[in-house]
Amino acid sequence: xxxxxxxxxxxxxxxxxxxxxxxxxxxxxxxxxxxxxxxxxxxxxxxxxxxxxxxxxxxxxxxxxxxxxxxxxxxxxxxxxxxxxxxxxxxxxxxxxxxxxxxxxxxxxxxxxxxxxxxxxxxxxxxxxxxxxxxxxxxxxxxxxxxxxxxxxxxxxxxxxxxxxxxxxxxxxxxxxxxxxxxxxxxxxx
Length: 190
Prior knowledge:
Elements: H1 2-22, H2 29-36, H3 40-46, H4 50-75, H5 83-94, H6 101-115, H7 120-140, H8 146-167, H9 171-182
Helix pairs in contact: 1-2, 1-4, 1-6, 2-3, 4-7, 5-9, 7-8, 8-9
């Protein structure tokens, strides 16, 4: 049933756009229907509850992010990977110079996962993909104990991205911060 699948995907895409533009509180069936160019009945037919809508939207986002970041992690496995290539990958993760609704929506969804434990497994799956990418990059750069530092690197990326979102700071700040992390070794801690 390709039509139902296309309609469902249009609804999910609309939910992510709405969340990115105006937050989760703006997600109403009427707004979704208008944004997705589907009937109001289609929204309720495909998604019985608001929770199901949010969960499926987060899972869709997670699937895309996991695929994207796993692909990037696979690219970080060759012998020619160096600090310059690491900076390029980090710039890709940073997502360019402007934040659009696609970059804002994940923050909203992760905060919602903090409020709704039913969404946490999906959020954890996405963070596992981020951790895999961080581990591969840190391993290729010869950073000691990359598995232990991966979570900190991911947290740093998210913190810098949130700072960027809130202040308009350039993406280069994120790259610089991560390059500083690559020079970190446990022996440097006080």
